[in-house]
Amino acid sequence: MNKKLTLTRHRRRVLGDASWITRLSQRVWVKGLETLGRYGGVKHARPKPEKDAQMQHYRPDRFSAAYLHFKGAAVWEWLHQPDILIVLETASVLRRPAVEGLSPHLKKAFPDLVTCLKFRQMVGHMVRQVMDGQGYALHRSNVRIPQSASIYGYGNVYRIPQAA
């Protein structure tokens, strides 16, 4: 068995459910640079997102009705909060689906909406656009999320494209 995989499972067992990504993401930002070192082997440093940075507009495509029905503008704004962006980026650096780390935060922020399938699909669609705006590219799709506490069963893994 791979040593890195064993350590990851040990961390999950010690820290509990999907919140292990959240707890790890709280230690990510050091002096404005993303440095995960031993956790993800990140060889790049990216500056913290500016608070005044222009937030991109959501393209609802096939979720236009869900966007109007489920307070889509509030969800889109919520996804651009700095702590939520850190959770998404941490999950991606750990090669896990971005929505896996987002799940406990969604339950707290939108407890009445997480039970609806269309809402969860719309959030996944929004996460794809957020990650694209942050410079990440889709790496793998339909990756199984094994935790029963997660509201998602499958998610997409994102990565920063390597410079050639």
Q: Mind explaining what this structure looks like?
A:
By secondary structure, the chain is mainly alpha-helical. Helix content is 46%, strand content 11%. The protein is built from seven helices and four strands; from the N terminus they run H-H-E-E-H-H-H-H-H-E-E. It has helices at residues 3-15, 19-25, 64-69, 72-79, 82-93, 98-109, 117-133; strands at 29-30, 33-34, 137-144, 154-159. The protein has a two-stranded antiparallel ribbon. A two-stranded antiparallel ribbon has the order 3-4. Helix 2 (19-25) crosses helix 5 (82-93), helix 2 packs across helix 6 and helix 5 runs antiparallel to helix 6. The longest helix has 17 residues, at 117-133. The protein is globular, with a radius of gyration of 16 Å. The model is unreliable at 3-8, 10-16 and 28-49 (pLDDT under 50).
Quickly list its features:
164 residues; mainly alpha; two-stranded antiparallel ribbon; 7 helices; 4 strands; globular; disordered N terminus
